[in-house]
Design a protein that fits this description.
The chain is mostly beta strands. It is built from no helices and 28 strands. InterPro entries: Cycloisomerase_2, Haem_d1_sf, Lactonase_7-beta_prop, WD40/YVTN_repeat-like_dom_sf.
Length: 334
């Protein structure tokens, strides 16, 4: 089984990047933390490297290289904004994008042949707000994703209820346009593209909803929207994380408040709910799907619980099969 790592928030007692071993029977065990990777709330892997955000007021991206069971710190660059929460690699591995939540900005770095960021980066900052005065007082970039063909970057703005399209040029960004306007107050959080069809999936945090979008020349159109929590649940719930499996037949979502994982089938360009299962902790913020091992591992932000699940042949989840507490847990790095 592969060794995973748990990103942790320092403000919640996190010690850095914590190695996690997952046994076939579901048993979880932790090793000594790598302290130089703080506040690693999101990561992207490629070029033989791991790029991790350092989510703090003066945001940064740490670049690490695995060396056996440890890490070597290769580079650290500014994120170009405050509280970076998402990082993404272009399909060809030559560009790195970062979403800065607090400053509502997207930053684009070129990467050299070794995969290291080259300064200066391109920067785009959005304007706008939403009806939720507490969460949408201004722009809040929560996700950046490259199009499958690598010609554009999409920025998901929770604060402005927008998905923006940023065309890519040699110098950085072209003319920015609104690709999709979310329902007012829904707070879009994460976006994923279908690998083979002109479809995308969008998870909204404040509305706790999953939307299937079709991609056209002028942007996205809504095909279907479903609640991520059970229809009879009346408590507060926030969408957490979104994963699409390799053959694009199953969609996994975490619910923070209902504290569950939801599994949806995606077929014939329609979504169908298959399962809700308790996530094993409080506020499941992030998780990874290990398809070869048929496992899923989820990190809970409010109690530091990291829980493992088995993935059944039909894609539904069984468990939790094991759990362990990691102070400050906020992400799982595969």
């Amino acid at each position: 089984m592969p060794t995973l790592h748990i990103g942790t928030y320092g403000k919640d007692g996190g010690a850095g990047l914590v190695p996690l071993t997952l046994a076939i029977d579901g048993t979880l065990a932790c090793g000594d933390a790598y302290a130089e990777a703080e506040n690693a709330s999101f990561a992207a892997s490629g070029n033989g490297l791991v790029y991790l955000v350092d989510e703090r007021e003066e945001g940064a991206v740490n670049v690490l290289c695995r060396e056996g069971e440890s890490w070597r710190h290769v580079a650290r660059v500014p994120s170009g904004g405050e509280e970076p929460c998402y990082v993404s690699l272009s399909p060809n591995g030559r560009r790195l994008a970062v979403a800065n939540y607090a400053s509502g900005s997207a930053v684009l770095y070129g990467l050299d042949e070794a995969g290291l960021p080259v300064s200066p980066p391109a920067l785009f900052r959005n304007d706008g707000s939403g009806p939720n005065a507490e969460r949408q007082e201004g722009p809040h970039a929560h996700c950046v994703r490259f199009s499958n063909d690598g010609t554009a970057l999409y920025m998901v703005d929770l604060g402005a209820d927008q998905v923006l399209r940023l065309p890519l040029t040699e110098e950085g960004f072209g003319e920015v346009s609104v690709a999709w306007t979310a329902p007012a107050g829904s707070g879009p959080r994460h976006l994923l593209f279908h690998p083979d069809r002109p479809l995308a999936l969008l998870l909204s945090e404040l509305a706790a909803s999953l939307t299937l979008l079709s991609e056209g020349p002028l942007g996205f159109e809504t095909r279907q929207t479903l609640s991520t929590a059970p229809e009879d649940f009346t408590g507060e719930n926030l969408g957490g994380h979104l994963v699409l499996n390799a053959d694009a037949s199953r969609v996994y979502v975490s619910n923070r408040g209902h504290d569950s994982l939801a599994v949806f089938a995606l077929a014939d360009e329609r979504l169908e709910l298959l399962q809700h299962i308790a996530s094993g902790g409080r506020h499941p913020r992030h998780f990874v799907l290990l398809e070869d091992e048929r496992k899923l591992v989820v990190a809970h932000e409010k109690d530091g619980c990291v829980a493992g699940f088995d993935v059944a042949p039909d894609g539904t989840l069984l468990g939790p099969t094991g759990s362990i507490r990691v102070p400050g847990a906020c992400s799982v790095v595969a």
